[in-house]
Amino acid sequence: MISIVLSLKDKKVVVVGGGAIAERKIKNMLAEEALITVVSPMITEEIQKWKDKKKLTWHQKYFQKRDLEGAFLVIAATDQENVNKQIADQCTPNQLVNVVSYYEQGNVIFPASASKENILVSVCSFGADPKWAKKMCNDTIKRLSEEEIEALSKKHQVRKRMLISSSQTKIPVDPK
What EC number(s) does this enzyme carry (predicted)? Predict the structure, then answer.
């Protein structure tokens, strides 16, 4: 496996399950402006609030294969390991799949992460100790000085200006 930072903006994400773990995953997806559909007979109060605010769609039912159609990312977050496996098995080879009970059944793992300004730190323990991984992320972010953060922020702004400038340069493309 490799680490990757992925934009989910305007991508269809299907979360099967409506409990605490699903809620935690959804919270992160909402921050990324993903188009979230939750499939579950029941959901937590927080997921219900997001639904009421039209931040996600809820299908109050049990999972069916057709729920996966068009999904960029599927998160199998039920409290039943066999159901999570069935969900993963029914995904297409081109779908990203996270299985909360056994990461090996999917092709995506969500590492612990912490961020500050333009810095993102992620640590993955492959399920061995998620609390430790989160602590490592938080400790690393806390160690950064304000000078380091400010210097990186300036570099980020310079890079953005360079990219904007280079995008205005016309490069000939072979029409073949």
Answer: 1.3.1.76
